[in-house]
Specification:
448 residues; alpha/beta; Rossmann fold; Alpha-Beta Plaits; 6-stranded mixed sheet; elongated
Length: 448
């Protein structure tokens, strides 16, 4: 057996044989250290509260300068470096947000930096990191490969590698979100926190449970990236494969040593929400709250919309919306997916007469019931039967399921050949996800 410290991926701050216990006092010290250097983000009551049957508040971490809560952990960590470390600079591996924060804070403090991102990292985040004065290296197909490259690079250049979700000082910095929530809403009943590697969830849980122990704290992941749920289920930090996900900020293959160690017994439950609900949540947050959030930031609201918290009806609930760095193309797709899931974007095929006025009659019919045509493509060559008919592939916009039902009835009444896509799948009626393993020794949510 060689010395584990010779492994390029050995990190003294994230040592599986020596996990660090994070204390509330360290989070409080971080809060004081960073006063005035990070944004104390607002915590307004949402417009969707009444519809969802609870007092729902959004902690707007997307209003940090870099568009994400990661700035807190990075700021706290870099403030604690000694002069030699600051001179040599810092490096990190990131899917985007941690890298952006690292570039911004280190450039502000006059320190060299280098951030390794997977080659499929969102373009918005890559560009944003470079604009903040960062050196971005694209390497690897996933976070695990990017991390190995970043740690090797750090040892070669004598730079400090800062783990974005497991460094003890990073967890302390993220925990300041919990302190702010308790200051802004002392009567809070439950806090919902997105979870990727676990630094935000661990930090917030430590702060909230110290200040108000009966407050419920839940971690939320999506069905595409649920590493923490798997780790807790198997009581081991297992490697999980992650393909494409809308919540790229949560795409961590293996959760942190320190976060895994600190979470157990503190978090009441882990919850998994399906990604189609995340797209719907992004759409509703844009429409009703007028905020733009990324997939990872919307998972908490998505889990409430999906009906995963019947025990929180009538309670004061805080959803941490962790970031807002979403590609415009991803945002557009999310809005369309959300509309389709709620019956507001409908796709169908209908065969009409190919004689003059045939298409116009169908368009007039749609106009009379107030349906907007988004796209209409005629198909003649592959239509069976009558050569004087034409099949139209139509995408329309409606006001919702009732309006869509009216559309279907009118098409059925006036045409013989038609096909509506997925009309039986009313996703607003399906279960949103499954709940993960319970972590609390004496779960608060199950006592009520």
């Amino acid at each position: 057996m060689g010395n584990p410290k010779d492994d390029p991926e050995y990190d003294e701050f994230c040592d599986p044989d020596n996990p660090r216990k994070i204390k509330y006092e360290d989070i409080l010290a971080a809060s004081r250290r960073m006063a005035g250097l990070v944004v104390k983000t607002p915590l307004p009551r949402t417009h969707m509260s009444d519809r969802l049957g609870m007092d729902l508040y959004i902690k707007q971490e997307f209003l940090q300068y870099t568009g994400c809560f990661k700035e807190r952990g990075v700021r706290n960590t870099l403030l604690l470096l000694n002069d030699d470390q600051k001179k040599n600079g810092v490096t990190a591996a990131s899917t985007g947000n941690h890298g952006i924060a690292m570039c911004y804070v280190s450039a502000q403090m006059g320190m060299p930096n280098a951030v390794v991102m997977p080659i499929h990292a969102p373009i918005t985040k890559v560009n944003k990191a470079e604009r903040q004065g960062g050196k971005v290296i694209l390497f690897g197909n996933n976070m695990a490969e990017a991390k190995r490259h970043a740690m090797t690079y750090a040892k070669e250049k004598k730079m400090v590698y800062v783990n974005g979700f497991d460094h003890p000082n990073v967890i302390e910095g993220q925990g300041t979100v919990g302190i702010e929530i308790m200051e802004q809403l002392p009567t809070v009943d439950a806090v919902l926190v997105p979870c990727g590697g676990g630094s935000l969830l661990a930090g917030v849980a430590i702060a909230v449970k110290h200040l108000k122990p009966d407050t419920e704290v839940y971690g939320v992941q999506t069905d595409k990236c649920c590493g923490m749920v798997e780790a807790l289920r198997k009581n081991d930090r297992v490697f999980v494969t992650i393909d494409s996900t809308l919540a790229d900020g949560l795409a961590v293959n293996k959760v942190g040593v320190n976060t895994f160690y600190n979470l157990k017994g503190l978090v009441d439950k882990m919850v998994i929400v399906r990604e189609d609900w995340v797209a719907r949540a992004i759409m509703h947050i844009v429409e009703e709250e007028r905020f733009v959030v990324e997939g990872a930031g919307a998972v908490t609201v998505a889990s409430v919309m999906a009906g995963l918290f019947p025990n929180l009806k009538g309670k004061k609930v805080v959803c941490v919306c962790s970031g807002g760095n979403i590609d415009t193309t991803t945002l557009a797709r999310s809005l369309e997916r959300g509309m389709a899931a709620e019956g507001r974007l409908v796709k169908f095929k209908v065969t009409v007469s190919d004689r003059p006025g045939g298409m116009a009659d169908m368009c007039s019919l749609l106009a009379t019931i107030g349906v907007t045509i988004r796209d209409c493509v005629p198909e003649r060559a592959w239509v069976k039967g009558d050569v004087f008919s034409c099949q139209l592939k139509v995408i329309v916009e409606t006001r919702g399921w009732d309006h869509t039902k009216e559309l279907v009835e009118q098409i059925k009444k006036h045409y013989k050949d038609y096909v509506f896509q997925d009309m039986n799948e009313r996703t607003d009626k399906t279960s949103g996800a499954r709940r993960g393993p319970c972590l609390a020794p004496n779960p608060v949510c199950m006592q009520k």
